[in-house]
Design goal:
With 151 residues, the chain is α+β, with helices and mostly antiparallel strands. It has one domain: Muramoyl-pentapeptide Carboxypeptidase, domain 2 (2-Layer Sandwich). The protein is built from 6 helices and 5 strands, in the order H-H-H-E-E-H-H-H-E-E-E. The chain has a 3-stranded antiparallel beta sheet. Strands 3-5 form a two-stranded antiparallel ribbon. Helix 1 packs antiparallel against helix 2, helix 1 packs across helix 4 and helix 2 runs parallel beside helix 6. Pfam families: ATC_hydrolase.
Length: 151
Amino acid sequence: MINIRSKDEPVGRMAKLMAGIFYFMAKEMIDKLGEDKGKEAIREAVTKFGELRAENMKEEAVERGLKINAETYAKVKDMPSISWESDPHNPGDITYCPMHDMWKQLNGEDIGALYCEIDKILYDKFNIEFERPLCKTAGDKCCRFVVKDKR
C-alpha cells in the first residue's frame, strides 16, 4: 500500500507518481536482465533523460540571454521545488523529498538511488561542481547538496 491522496499538493503527488513508475520500470529491468545489466540499462536511461532535460534548460537559458552557471540553473530548472523541504539553517540539506518518500514506501530506496544520479548529470551540464555526501536513499537524514561553479 502506498500513501498518495488526491488532496495532496499536486507537484509532490506527481513527483511520487514519477518515482513510482521509475521504481517499477527499473525493478522490471533488473529482474529481467539481471542486476548488473539491469542497473547498467537504468543508468544509461537516466543519463539520456538527464542530458535531454539539461539541454532543454540550457536552451531556455540561451533564449533568456543567461550564462550557463549555478545561478542560471536555479532560474531555469525544470522541476519545481514545491513539496521538497530543506533545513532552514542549511538550505542545501533536503530533509523531505517526495520521490524518496515513494521509494521508501515501496522498499526500493536502492533503486531510487539510481535515479538520484541524474543530479550530477544536470549540474555537470551547467558547469557546476556537485557533491552529495549525504543521501536519503542511503539512509541519511537528508540529501546534502554541495554545489559551486566550476572555475
